[in-house]
Specification:
Two copies of one chain form a homodimer. Chain A has six helices and eleven strands. With about 260 residues, the first copy, chain A, is α/β, with parallel strands linked by helices. Chain A has one domain: Survival protein SurE-like phosphatase/nucleotidase (Stationary-phase Survival Protein Sure Homolog, Chain: A). The interface between A and B is large, with 84 and 84 residues. Chains A, B: It holds the Pfam family SurE.
Chain lengths: ~260, ~260
Protein backbone atom coordinates (compact mmCIF):
# COMPACT_ATOMS: atom_id res chain seq x y z
CA UNK A 1 0.00 0.00 0.00
CA UNK A 2 1.16 3.51 -0.86
CA UNK A 3 2.17 5.57 2.16
CA UNK A 4 -0.62 7.96 3.09
CA UNK A 5 -0.03 11.69 2.68
CA UNK A 6 -1.10 13.67 5.74
CA UNK A 7 -1.44 17.44 6.14
CA UNK A 8 -1.08 18.64 9.73
CA UNK A 9 -2.37 22.09 10.64
CA UNK A 10 -3.83 24.08 13.54
CA UNK A 11 -5.02 27.52 14.58
CA UNK A 12 -2.71 28.19 17.50
CA UNK A 13 0.14 28.75 15.04
CA UNK A 14 3.13 26.72 13.88
CA UNK A 15 5.08 27.43 17.08
CA UNK A 16 2.35 26.09 19.40
CA UNK A 17 3.14 23.02 21.53
CA UNK A 18 0.02 21.14 20.40
CA UNK A 19 1.00 20.87 16.74
CA UNK A 20 4.48 19.77 17.71
CA UNK A 21 3.10 16.90 19.79
CA UNK A 22 0.65 15.94 17.07
CA UNK A 23 3.31 15.88 14.36
CA UNK A 24 5.65 13.81 16.55
CA UNK A 25 2.91 11.27 17.32
CA UNK A 26 2.05 10.89 13.63
CA UNK A 27 5.62 10.11 12.54
CA UNK A 28 5.68 6.81 10.72
CA UNK A 29 1.96 6.95 9.96
CA UNK A 30 2.59 8.49 6.55
CA UNK A 31 4.31 11.32 4.70
CA UNK A 32 3.68 14.33 6.90
CA UNK A 33 3.47 17.95 5.85
CA UNK A 34 2.93 20.70 8.40
CA UNK A 35 1.26 23.82 6.98
CA UNK A 36 0.05 26.12 9.73
CA UNK A 37 -0.55 29.79 10.49
CA UNK A 38 2.57 31.81 11.27
CA UNK A 39 0.81 33.37 14.25
CA UNK A 40 -2.10 32.36 16.46
CA UNK A 41 -5.48 32.52 14.70
CA UNK A 42 -7.98 31.50 17.35
CA UNK A 43 -11.69 32.29 17.02
CA UNK A 44 -11.26 33.24 13.37
CA UNK A 45 -14.20 31.10 12.34
CA UNK A 46 -14.13 29.82 8.80
CA UNK A 47 -12.25 32.84 7.48
CA UNK A 48 -10.31 32.93 4.24
CA UNK A 49 -7.96 35.64 3.05
CA UNK A 50 -9.16 37.32 -0.12
CA UNK A 51 -7.81 40.85 0.17
CA UNK A 52 -4.19 40.17 1.10
CA UNK A 53 -1.47 38.15 -0.57
CA UNK A 54 -0.43 34.95 1.18
CA UNK A 55 3.21 34.18 1.88
CA UNK A 56 4.85 30.93 2.91
CA UNK A 57 7.86 30.69 5.22
CA UNK A 58 9.79 27.48 5.89
CA UNK A 59 10.18 26.89 9.60
CA UNK A 60 12.34 24.49 11.59
CA UNK A 61 11.82 23.80 15.30
CA UNK A 62 14.21 21.89 17.53
CA UNK A 63 16.02 20.39 14.51
CA UNK A 64 13.29 17.78 14.19
CA UNK A 65 10.15 19.62 13.17
CA UNK A 66 9.93 21.14 9.75
CA UNK A 67 6.89 23.00 8.48
CA UNK A 68 5.45 25.71 6.27
CA UNK A 69 4.07 28.81 7.97
CA UNK A 70 1.41 30.84 6.17
CA UNK A 71 0.45 34.45 7.01
CA UNK A 72 -3.22 33.51 6.89
CA UNK A 73 -6.00 31.56 8.53
CA UNK A 74 -6.26 27.80 9.15
CA UNK A 75 -8.58 27.47 6.12
CA UNK A 76 -5.98 29.33 4.02
CA UNK A 77 -3.34 26.82 5.17
CA UNK A 78 -5.42 23.89 3.97
CA UNK A 79 -6.24 25.46 0.61
CA UNK A 80 -2.69 26.67 -0.04
CA UNK A 81 -1.12 23.52 1.37
CA UNK A 82 -3.15 21.23 -0.87
CA UNK A 83 -2.72 23.32 -4.00
CA UNK A 84 0.81 24.71 -3.75
CA UNK A 85 2.88 22.84 -1.15
CA UNK A 86 1.95 19.16 -1.00
CA UNK A 87 2.88 16.96 -3.98
CA UNK A 88 -0.74 15.81 -4.33
CA UNK A 89 -4.09 16.01 -2.57
CA UNK A 90 -3.55 14.52 0.90
CA UNK A 91 -5.30 11.40 2.19
CA UNK A 92 -6.02 13.04 5.54
CA UNK A 93 -5.98 16.47 7.12
CA UNK A 94 -5.58 16.63 10.88
CA UNK A 95 -5.90 19.91 12.77
CA UNK A 96 -4.69 20.54 16.31
CA UNK A 97 -3.99 19.80 18.99
CA UNK A 98 -5.91 22.89 20.00
CA UNK A 99 -5.51 24.36 23.43
CA UNK A 100 -9.09 24.86 24.63
CA UNK A 101 -12.25 22.89 23.93
CA UNK A 102 -14.08 23.17 20.61
CA UNK A 103 -17.47 21.93 21.69
CA UNK A 104 -21.08 23.14 21.49
CA UNK A 105 -21.50 26.61 19.96
CA UNK A 106 -17.71 27.15 20.07
CA UNK A 107 -17.43 24.81 17.09
CA UNK A 108 -18.62 27.56 14.78
CA UNK A 109 -15.96 30.04 15.98
CA UNK A 110 -13.17 27.50 15.87
CA UNK A 111 -10.24 27.92 13.54
CA UNK A 112 -9.13 24.37 14.40
CA UNK A 113 -12.40 22.91 13.20
CA UNK A 114 -12.57 25.24 10.19
CA UNK A 115 -9.29 23.83 8.87
CA UNK A 116 -10.74 20.33 9.03
CA UNK A 117 -13.99 21.60 7.48
CA UNK A 118 -12.08 23.14 4.59
CA UNK A 119 -10.48 19.76 3.93
CA UNK A 120 -13.83 17.96 4.12
CA UNK A 121 -15.31 20.39 1.58
CA UNK A 122 -12.36 19.64 -0.72
CA UNK A 123 -13.21 15.94 -0.41
CA UNK A 124 -10.45 15.01 2.05
CA UNK A 125 -11.18 13.07 5.28
CA UNK A 126 -10.42 15.31 8.23
CA UNK A 127 -10.05 15.30 12.00
CA UNK A 128 -9.95 18.23 14.46
CA UNK A 129 -8.44 17.59 17.89
CA UNK A 130 -8.64 19.81 20.97
CA UNK A 131 -7.86 19.45 24.64
CA UNK A 132 -10.21 21.06 27.12
CA UNK A 133 -7.72 23.38 28.77
CA UNK A 134 -6.22 26.71 27.78
CA UNK A 135 -3.25 26.26 30.08
CA UNK A 136 -2.41 22.59 30.67
CA UNK A 137 0.23 21.58 28.12
CA UNK A 138 0.02 17.81 28.39
CA UNK A 139 -0.72 16.48 24.92
CA UNK A 140 0.66 12.94 25.07
CA UNK A 141 -2.61 11.01 25.34
CA UNK A 142 -4.41 13.31 22.86
CA UNK A 143 -1.53 12.94 20.41
CA UNK A 144 -1.39 9.15 20.71
CA UNK A 145 -5.17 8.91 20.37
CA UNK A 146 -5.04 11.20 17.31
CA UNK A 147 -2.65 8.80 15.64
CA UNK A 148 -4.89 5.87 16.37
CA UNK A 149 -7.97 7.64 15.05
CA UNK A 150 -6.04 8.84 12.00
CA UNK A 151 -5.26 5.21 11.21
CA UNK A 152 -8.93 4.24 11.50
CA UNK A 153 -10.04 7.11 9.27
CA UNK A 154 -7.36 6.32 6.66
CA UNK A 155 -8.61 2.74 6.61
CA UNK A 156 -12.37 3.33 6.68
CA UNK A 157 -12.82 6.81 5.22
CA UNK A 158 -15.52 9.25 6.27
CA UNK A 159 -18.84 10.21 4.65
CA UNK A 160 -18.85 13.13 2.24
CA UNK A 161 -18.06 16.53 3.80
CA UNK A 162 -17.76 15.10 7.29
CA UNK A 163 -15.22 15.97 9.99
CA UNK A 164 -14.52 14.12 13.22
CA UNK A 165 -14.36 16.74 15.95
CA UNK A 166 -12.42 15.28 18.88
CA UNK A 167 -12.27 16.86 22.34
CA UNK A 168 -10.06 15.36 25.04
CA UNK A 169 -10.60 16.23 28.72
CA UNK A 170 -7.70 18.00 30.41
CA UNK A 171 -7.03 15.40 33.09
CA UNK A 172 -4.30 12.80 33.57
CA UNK A 173 -4.72 9.89 31.19
CA UNK A 174 -5.66 7.41 33.91
CA UNK A 175 -8.67 9.57 34.81
CA UNK A 176 -10.09 9.51 31.28
CA UNK A 177 -13.02 7.13 31.42
CA UNK A 178 -14.01 6.33 27.86
CA UNK A 179 -14.66 7.48 24.29
CA UNK A 180 -18.18 8.71 23.51
CA UNK A 181 -19.69 9.45 20.11
CA UNK A 182 -21.60 12.69 20.63
CA UNK A 183 -23.74 15.37 19.08
CA UNK A 184 -22.90 19.08 19.09
CA UNK A 185 -24.45 20.81 22.10
CA UNK A 186 -26.19 24.16 22.26
CA UNK A 187 -24.06 25.48 25.12
CA UNK A 188 -22.78 28.98 24.50
CA UNK A 189 -21.27 31.93 26.27
CA UNK A 190 -23.52 34.49 27.85
CA UNK A 191 -21.59 37.47 26.61
CA UNK A 192 -20.54 40.41 28.66
CA UNK A 193 -18.24 43.26 27.79
CA UNK A 194 -15.75 44.76 30.16
CA UNK A 195 -15.87 48.50 29.47
CA UNK A 196 -12.64 50.37 30.18
CA UNK A 197 -11.05 53.75 29.59
CA UNK A 198 -7.64 53.90 27.91
CA UNK A 199 -4.84 56.32 28.97
CA UNK A 200 -6.09 58.73 26.29
CA UNK A 201 -9.57 58.77 27.81
CA UNK A 202 -11.12 56.69 25.06
CA UNK A 203 -13.60 53.92 25.79
CA UNK A 204 -12.80 50.35 24.78
CA UNK A 205 -14.38 46.96 25.40
CA UNK A 206 -13.08 43.46 26.08
CA UNK A 207 -15.32 40.55 25.18
CA UNK A 208 -15.84 38.31 28.17
CA UNK A 209 -18.61 36.01 29.28
CA UNK A 210 -19.84 33.06 31.22
CA UNK A 211 -20.23 29.59 29.82
CA UNK A 212 -23.79 28.32 29.75
CA UNK A 213 -24.75 24.67 29.61
CA UNK A 214 -27.98 24.33 27.63
CA UNK A 215 -28.27 20.56 27.19
CA UNK A 216 -28.61 17.42 29.16
CA UNK A 217 -28.06 13.81 28.23
CA UNK A 218 -25.10 11.48 27.89
CA UNK A 219 -24.35 12.20 24.25
CA UNK A 220 -23.58 15.93 24.16
CA UNK A 221 -20.03 17.05 23.35
CA UNK A 222 -19.40 19.63 26.09
CA UNK A 223 -21.08 17.58 28.82
CA UNK A 224 -19.16 14.43 27.90
CA UNK A 225 -15.82 16.24 28.17
CA UNK A 226 -16.80 17.63 31.58
CA UNK A 227 -17.36 14.01 32.66
CA UNK A 228 -13.71 13.24 31.84
CA UNK A 229 -14.56 11.37 28.64
CA UNK A 230 -13.26 11.85 25.13
CA UNK A 231 -15.94 13.28 22.82
CA UNK A 232 -16.01 12.52 19.09
CA UNK A 233 -18.68 14.38 17.11
CA UNK A 234 -19.17 13.80 13.39
CA UNK A 235 -19.97 17.22 11.91
CA UNK A 236 -21.04 18.29 8.43
CA UNK A 237 -21.62 21.52 6.52
CA UNK A 238 -25.12 21.48 5.08
CA UNK A 239 -26.69 24.09 7.36
CA UNK A 240 -30.19 23.79 5.89
CA UNK A 241 -32.88 23.62 8.56
CA UNK A 242 -34.77 20.81 6.81
CA UNK A 243 -37.39 20.48 9.54
CA UNK A 244 -38.46 24.10 8.94
CA UNK A 245 -38.35 24.03 5.11
CA UNK A 246 -41.89 22.83 4.55
CA UNK A 247 -43.31 25.16 7.17
CA UNK A 248 -41.53 28.12 5.54
CA UNK A 249 -43.04 27.20 2.16
CA UNK A 250 -46.46 27.62 3.76
CA UNK A 251 -45.61 31.26 4.53
CA UNK A 252 -46.31 31.68 0.81
CA UNK A 253 -43.93 34.63 0.48
CA UNK A 254 -44.66 36.81 -2.56
CA UNK A 255 -42.50 39.38 -4.28
CA UNK A 256 -44.75 42.34 -3.42
CA UNK B 1 -48.17 46.93 20.08
CA UNK B 2 -44.73 48.05 21.16
CA UNK B 3 -42.53 49.22 18.29
CA UNK B 4 -40.08 46.47 17.34
CA UNK B 5 -36.38 47.06 17.97
CA UNK B 6 -34.23 46.15 14.96
CA UNK B 7 -30.45 45.86 14.73
CA UNK B 8 -29.06 46.40 11.23
CA UNK B 9 -25.56 45.17 10.43
CA UNK B 10 -23.44 43.86 7.56
CA UNK B 11 -19.93 42.74 6.63
CA UNK B 12 -19.14 45.22 3.86
CA UNK B 13 -18.74 47.93 6.49
CA UNK B 14 -20.82 50.85 7.70
CA UNK B 15 -19.97 52.96 4.64
CA UNK B 16 -21.18 50.34 2.12
CA UNK B 17 -24.14 51.23 -0.10
CA UNK B 18 -26.05 48.03 0.77
CA UNK B 19 -26.51 48.83 4.45
CA UNK B 20 -27.58 52.37 3.60
CA UNK B 21 -30.35 51.08 1.30
CA UNK B 22 -31.41 48.49 3.86
CA UNK B 23 -31.63 51.00 6.70
CA UNK B 24 -33.62 53.43 4.53
CA UNK B 25 -36.08 50.73 3.49
CA UNK B 26 -36.64 49.69 7.11
CA UNK B 27 -37.51 53.19 8.34
CA UNK B 28 -40.90 53.14 9.98
CA UNK B 29 -40.76 49.39 10.57
CA UNK B 30 -39.39 49.85 14.08
CA UNK B 31 -36.68 51.49 16.14
CA UNK B 32 -33.56 50.99 14.07
CA UNK B 33 -29.98 50.74 15.28
CA UNK B 34 -27.10 50.36 12.85
CA UNK B 35 -24.05 48.63 14.35
CA UNK B 36 -21.60 47.56 11.66
CA UNK B 37 -17.89 47.02 11.05
CA UNK B 38 -15.87 50.19 10.53
CA UNK B 39 -14.14 48.59 7.55
CA UNK B 40 -15.02 45.79 5.14
CA UNK B 41 -14.93 42.32 6.74
CA UNK B 42 -15.81 39.95 3.92
CA UNK B 43 -15.01 36.23 4.10
CA UNK B 44 -14.24 36.48 7.81
CA UNK B 45 -16.42 33.48 8.56
CA UNK B 46 -17.84 33.37 12.06
CA UNK B 47 -14.92 35.20 13.62
CA UNK B 48 -15.00 36.97 16.96
CA UNK B 49 -12.38 39.28 18.40
CA UNK B 50 -10.83 37.92 21.58
CA UNK B 51 -7.31 39.31 21.53
CA UNK B 52 -7.97 42.97 20.76
CA UNK B 53 -10.09 45.59 22.47
CA UNK B 54 -13.20 46.70 20.61
CA UNK B 55 -13.98 50.36 20.05
CA UNK B 56 -17.18 52.04 18.94
CA UNK B 57 -17.31 55.16 16.77
CA UNK B 58 -20.50 57.10 16.05
CA UNK B 59 -20.91 57.67 12.32
CA UNK B 60 -23.23 59.91 10.33
CA UNK B 61 -23.74 59.57 6.57
CA UNK B 62 -25.56 62.08 4.37
CA UNK B 63 -27.22 63.71 7.40
CA UNK B 64 -29.84 60.97 7.44
CA UNK B 65 -28.02 57.79 8.41
CA UNK B 66 -26.65 57.40 11.89
CA UNK B 67 -24.83 54.32 13.10
CA UNK B 68 -22.22 52.79 15.36
CA UNK B 69 -19.03 51.51 13.75
CA UNK B 70 -17.06 48.76 15.51
CA UNK B 71 -13.42 47.86 14.81
CA UNK B 72 -14.33 44.18 14.70
CA UNK B 73 -16.19 41.49 12.82
CA UNK B 74 -19.91 41.25 12.01
CA UNK B 75 -20.37 38.77 14.88
CA UNK B 76 -18.64 41.27 17.22
CA UNK B 77 -21.10 43.95 16.08
CA UNK B 78 -24.08 41.80 17.01
CA UNK B 79 -22.66 40.82 20.40
CA UNK B 80 -21.51 44.34 21.31
CA UNK B 81 -24.61 45.96 19.81
CA UNK B 82 -26.98 43.81 21.83
CA UNK B 83 -25.05 44.09 25.07
CA UNK B 84 -23.69 47.65 25.07
CA UNK B 85 -25.44 49.83 22.49
CA UNK B 86 -29.10 48.89 22.10
CA UNK B 87 -31.44 49.66 25.01
CA UNK B 88 -32.58 46.01 25.11
CA UNK B 89 -32.28 42.75 23.20
CA UNK B 90 -33.60 43.46 19.70
CA UNK B 91 -36.65 41.77 18.17
CA UNK B 92 -34.84 41.24 14.88
CA UNK B 93 -31.32 41.36 13.47
CA UNK B 94 -30.98 41.95 9.76
CA UNK B 95 -27.62 41.74 8.02
CA UNK B 96 -26.83 43.12 4.56
CA UNK B 97 -27.43 43.97 1.91
CA UNK B 98 -24.29 42.11 0.94
CA UNK B 99 -22.66 42.70 -2.38
CA UNK B 100 -22.07 39.18 -3.74
CA UNK B 101 -24.05 35.97 -3.30
CA UNK B 102 -23.93 33.98 -0.06
CA UNK B 103 -25.08 30.64 -1.36
CA UNK B 104 -23.86 27.03 -1.28
CA UNK B 105 -20.46 26.56 0.40
CA UNK B 106 -19.94 30.34 0.51
CA UNK B 107 -22.43 30.47 3.37
CA UNK B 108 -19.78 29.16 5.76
CA UNK B 109 -17.26 31.90 4.82
CA UNK B 110 -19.83 34.66 4.94
CA UNK B 111 -19.55 37.49 7.42
CA UNK B 112 -23.05 38.63 6.45
CA UNK B 113 -24.55 35.28 7.41
CA UNK B 114 -22.37 34.97 10.53
CA UNK B 115 -23.86 38.18 11.93
CA UNK B 116 -27.34 36.72 11.53
CA UNK B 117 -26.14 33.40 12.97
CA UNK B 118 -24.75 35.18 16.03
CA UNK B 119 -28.16 36.73 16.61
CA UNK B 120 -29.93 33.38 16.15
CA UNK B 121 -27.62 31.79 18.72
CA UNK B 122 -28.51 34.61 21.12
CA UNK B 123 -32.18 33.76 20.59
CA UNK B 124 -33.00 36.64 18.23
CA UNK B 125 -34.79 36.06 14.89
CA UNK B 126 -32.40 36.99 12.09
CA UNK B 127 -32.23 37.54 8.35
CA UNK B 128 -29.19 37.78 6.05
CA UNK B 129 -29.67 39.46 2.66
CA UNK B 130 -27.29 39.41 -0.30
CA UNK B 131 -27.48 40.38 -3.95
CA UNK B 132 -25.73 38.16 -6.46
CA UNK B 133 -23.36 40.74 -7.87
CA UNK B 134 -20.09 42.18 -6.64
CA UNK B 135 -20.44 45.28 -8.82
CA UNK B 136 -24.08 46.12 -9.53
CA UNK B 137 -25.23 48.64 -6.91
CA UNK B 138 -28.99 48.41 -7.38
CA UNK B 139 -30.48 47.52 -4.04
CA UNK B 140 -34.03 48.88 -4.28
CA UNK B 141 -35.91 45.61 -4.79
CA UNK B 142 -33.73 43.71 -2.32
CA UNK B 143 -34.24 46.46 0.27
CA UNK B 144 -38.02 46.57 -0.21
CA UNK B 145 -38.23 42.81 -0.06
CA UNK B 146 -36.10 42.78 3.10
CA UNK B 147 -38.59 45.07 4.77
CA UNK B 148 -41.48 42.86 3.77
CA UNK B 149 -39.74 39.73 5.03
CA UNK B 150 -38.72 41.51 8.24
CA UNK B 151 -42.40 42.22 8.87
CA UNK B 152 -43.32 38.59 8.35
CA UNK B 153 -40.55 37.37 10.67
CA UNK B 154 -41.48 39.90 13.36
CA UNK B 155 -45.05 38.64 13.17
CA UNK B 156 -44.44 34.89 12.95
CA UNK B 157 -41.04 34.38 14.56
CA UNK B 158 -38.52 31.75 13.49
CA UNK B 159 -37.61 28.36 14.98
CA UNK B 160 -34.83 28.25 17.54
CA UNK B 161 -31.35 29.14 16.17
CA UNK B 162 -32.62 29.60 12.64
CA UNK B 163 -31.61 32.28 10.14
CA UNK B 164 -33.31 33.12 6.86
CA UNK B 165 -30.56 33.44 4.26
CA UNK B 166 -31.91 35.50 1.37
CA UNK B 167 -30.15 35.85 -2.00
CA UNK B 168 -31.54 38.17 -4.66
CA UNK B 169 -30.48 37.83 -8.31
CA UNK B 170 -28.65 40.82 -9.77
CA UNK B 171 -31.11 41.60 -12.52
CA UNK B 172 -33.73 44.33 -12.99
CA UNK B 173 -36.74 43.79 -10.78
CA UNK B 174 -39.08 42.99 -13.68
CA UNK B 175 -36.88 40.03 -14.62
CA UNK B 176 -37.08 38.42 -11.17
CA UNK B 177 -39.43 35.51 -11.58
CA UNK B 178 -40.41 34.33 -8.12
CA UNK B 179 -39.42 33.50 -4.52
CA UNK B 180 -38.20 29.96 -3.88
CA UNK B 181 -37.59 28.29 -0.50
CA UNK B 182 -34.32 26.42 -0.96
CA UNK B 183 -31.72 24.20 0.61
CA UNK B 184 -28.01 25.07 0.83
CA UNK B 185 -26.13 23.70 -2.18
CA UNK B 186 -22.76 21.97 -2.25
CA UNK B 187 -21.32 24.26 -4.93
CA UNK B 188 -17.86 25.51 -4.07
CA UNK B 189 -14.83 27.10 -5.62
CA UNK B 190 -12.18 24.96 -7.20
CA UNK B 191 -9.27 26.83 -5.71
CA UNK B 192 -6.26 27.99 -7.56
CA UNK B 193 -3.47 30.26 -6.42
CA UNK B 194 -1.87 32.88 -8.59
CA UNK B 195 1.84 32.74 -7.70
CA UNK B 196 3.71 36.02 -8.16
CA UNK B 197 7.06 37.58 -7.31
CA UNK B 198 7.10 40.90 -5.48
CA UNK B 199 9.56 43.74 -6.28
CA UNK B 200 11.84 42.38 -3.53
CA UNK B 201 11.98 38.98 -5.22
CA UNK B 202 9.77 37.29 -2.66
CA UNK B 203 7.04 34.85 -3.65
CA UNK B 204 3.43 35.58 -2.78
CA UNK B 205 0.07 34.02 -3.66
CA UNK B 206 -3.39 35.34 -4.44
CA UNK B 207 -6.32 33.03 -3.79
CA UNK B 208 -8.41 32.67 -6.92
CA UNK B 209 -10.64 29.93 -8.29
CA UNK B 210 -13.49 28.82 -10.44
CA UNK B 211 -17.01 28.34 -9.22
CA UNK B 212 -18.24 24.77 -9.40
CA UNK B 213 -21.92 23.79 -9.50
CA UNK B 214 -22.32 20.47 -7.68
CA UNK B 215 -26.09 20.12 -7.44
CA UNK B 216 -29.13 19.88 -9.58
CA UNK B 217 -32.80 20.36 -8.82
CA UNK B 218 -35.16 23.28 -8.44
CA UNK B 219 -34.62 23.85 -4.75
CA UNK B 220 -30.90 24.64 -4.42
CA UNK B 221 -29.85 28.15 -3.38
CA UNK B 222 -27.15 28.93 -5.95
CA UNK B 223 -29.05 27.39 -8.87
CA UNK B 224 -32.26 29.23 -8.01
CA UNK B 225 -30.45 32.58 -8.01
CA UNK B 226 -28.89 31.78 -11.41
CA UNK B 227 -32.45 31.26 -12.68
CA UNK B 228 -33.30 34.87 -11.72
CA UNK B 229 -35.31 33.84 -8.68
CA UNK B 230 -35.01 34.97 -5.07
CA UNK B 231 -33.67 32.18 -2.83
CA UNK B 232 -34.62 31.93 0.85
CA UNK B 233 -32.83 29.18 2.77
CA UNK B 234 -33.58 28.50 6.43
CA UNK B 235 -30.25 27.64 8.04
CA UNK B 236 -29.35 26.39 11.50
CA UNK B 237 -26.21 25.74 13.55
CA UNK B 238 -26.30 22.18 14.81
CA UNK B 239 -23.57 20.72 12.58
CA UNK B 240 -23.91 17.15 13.86
CA UNK B 241 -23.94 14.59 11.05
CA UNK B 242 -26.81 12.61 12.57
CA UNK B 243 -26.99 10.14 9.69
CA UNK B 244 -23.40 9.04 10.42
CA UNK B 245 -23.66 8.99 14.24
CA UNK B 246 -24.87 5.40 14.56
CA UNK B 247 -22.39 4.14 11.99
CA UNK B 248 -19.54 5.83 13.87
CA UNK B 249 -20.61 4.16 17.12
CA UNK B 250 -20.08 0.82 15.37
CA UNK B 251 -16.42 1.71 14.83
CA UNK B 252 -16.18 0.85 18.52
CA UNK B 253 -13.27 3.21 19.12
CA UNK B 254 -11.24 2.34 22.23
CA UNK B 255 -8.76 4.43 24.17
CA UNK B 256 -5.76 2.28 23.33
Amino acid sequence: MKKPLILVTNDDGIYAPGIYSLKKALEGAGDLYVVAPLVEKSAVGHAITLSDPLRVTEIERDNDFFGYAVNGTPADCVKLGCKCILPRKPDLVISGINQGPNTATNVIYSGTVSAAAEAAIMGIPAIAVSIASFTRQEFSFAARFSRKLAGMVLERGLPERTVLNVNVPAVPEEEIEEIVITRQGKGRYEEAFDKRIDPNNRVYYWLTGKRMILDNGNDVDDLVVMQNKVSITPIQYDLTNYSFLEELKKWNIKMD
